Amino acid sequence: MALLDIKDLHATVDDGDAGPKPILKGISLTINPGEVHAVMGPNGAGKSTLSNVISGRPGYTVTGGSVTYDGVDLLEMEADARARAGLFLAFQYPVEIPGVATGTFLKTAINARRKANGEPEIEALDFLKLMKANAKKLGVADDMLKRPVNVGFSGGEKKRAEVLQMAMLEPRLCLLDETDSGLDIDALKVVADGVNALRAPDRGMLVITHYQRLLDYIVPDVVHVLADGRIVKSGDKSLALELESKGYAEFTGAAA
Description:
With 256 residues, this protein is α/β, with parallel strands linked by helices. The chain contains ten helices and twelve strands. It has helices spanning 47-55, 79-84, 102-116, 124-137, 142-146, 155-169, 185-197, 213-217, 238-246, 249-255, and strands at residues 4-14, 20-31, 36-40, 60-69, 72-73, 87-90, 97-101, 148-149, 173-177, 204-209, 222-227, 230-235.
């Protein structure tokens, strides 16, 4: 069974006084367990809209098509239910949560997942050992775990903190929305190593990026080109290299 099955997905975004604006115009995409798919495309193609619709972010309206996650109609689930069911979105611009310590946030999130699965809350000592072990692997300093979520964090620290959240929550489906945005090479390698450590036979990933450089470190099984709300070409990792050398002009023309 496919982990994520998207069929002919159409969606609009609320554009204020202008009304609904069509963004996704017939997306079809299937991710099987164990696969990493990359979505590339120019600005305004609909890449972030795709991740936001899958995760259930408010402000978007699905006007056609279906999204099935692990055999269940994902569009019928609220955003928090999707998260408890094992879906994780890493934001392009992670939000700050003043007043909530990173460690407290992680423990609360883990216990929400465990409760949804009918499991008891994690023991405090077990949580602490797990958090510190994962934080060490990802280069997350102990003082970051005590600070409010993302408050005062650098761009690299925010992305490391998100990968730490993934490592702790062990989601079935990871959506990485331009997680390379604003990262230098060293931070990119740390984040990519953390993501690669989460690759597993029962886990799928959708990596959204502008640039091929991220895919040097997180090597995808399939690459999709998204232009004007449609997937206009799919291929293996060599397609990303082609995009790096030729750009998107050929595909934006194909989408027109």
